[in-house]
Amino acid sequence: MKTALWLYLFLFLAFFDLHAQYPILTPFAVSLGAAPAFIGWMMGMYSLTHLPGNLLAGVLVDRNGSRRYIVFSLVTAGAILLLQAHAQLPWHLLVLRAASGFALAFLSPACMTLLASLSADPAQQGKYMSGHGIIHTLASVVSPAAGAFIVAKAGYAGTFSTLGWLLIATGIMAFFSVPAPARLPTGLKAAPALLPHEQPAGEGGDRTGNTHGTKRYYLLPFFVACSQGVLFFELPMSQTGSNAVLSTGILLSLLSLGALLTLGMLFLNRVSPNLRIACALLGMALSFFCLAAFRQIPVGLILFLLGAAKGILFPAMASLFISLAGPGRMGRTFSMQSIAMSLGAFAGPVAAGQLRTVISPYFIAFLLLMTALLLLPPGKTHKLAAQPAEWERRTA
Fold first, then answer.
1. Which of 33, 87, 324, 346 is surrounded by the fewest CB atoms within 10 Å?
2. pTM (2 decimals)?
3. For the chain, which residues make up each domain, given as ranges?
4. What are the residue boundaries of the Major facilitator superfamily (MFS) profile domain, all occurrences included (predicted)?
């Protein structure tokens, strides 16, 4: 539990730092002379460079533990932010955002793997993931408004410098506090490579060798990340006036408050992940439809409801992907999830930037989420890939 508390503290500081940039990046790019299409590519490039980092993280985290990659991500991303404070041209920002995307690609798989490895009990793992979501949301509640406030007082350069030093300090704290290497739960040994017909559910399909249904689950984070990328692109673009940055920050904070409401409902962890995912996808899709079609509904109310649906979705997806992994393979599984989200986060803002003069980007997000809902495999969620006794028998 002590390790979880330390990790939650570092995650809060890291998420605060990252979310504080969301209402800042678009107006900063505009101030450098960037066009909307270029801004879409800039935001997408950040996610595209996640891919090589995610591919490396999956193997390296399982092999070497989480601490060194958490520290690397935080310190490197902080240094890049210090450079970003001195960007003078749009392509400077593009290159720095691409480098930041690679550096931070290691953070999520490393943190999720460390949290999941603290217990072998699926219910306890679900609580850890809900705690991760609560910390993430708490940080995102205050950070967009805080970032906008810092910009108003210190300007873009001062804001990026402040956030960069905060990330570096967090990385140094993590070096001395996060255990290394991350260990498997007591009584479990690292799983050896298995033949295809021995693969547990999720890694090589079910025990009958059927991989079709299992692989479809990785479409979920892709479509969800697409819709989020659309939101983070379009929301700042739709705000006008002298207080546009501040209003964007407040709206994003309302989004996080909605997520915090449902993340605090820990009893939801007892419900099947598949059912929670289906309800959350439907709620998010309807929220985007309202943003696109019903301008008379307050945007803040819609974003609050959208956040509430997100608060149900993300712990459910985490529980699902834990069930698809086995001991010694969680890094790879969360890496695949991060890759899917990186691809989606790249495609979403790029599509929104190219098509916003033709169709509402919010309607694009609605279509993406409804597609994800239709592709959700029916039936009960997979059971845990392998119970402790099974892994002990395999590795004896």
1. 33
2. 0.63
3. 2-180+206-384
4. 3-380
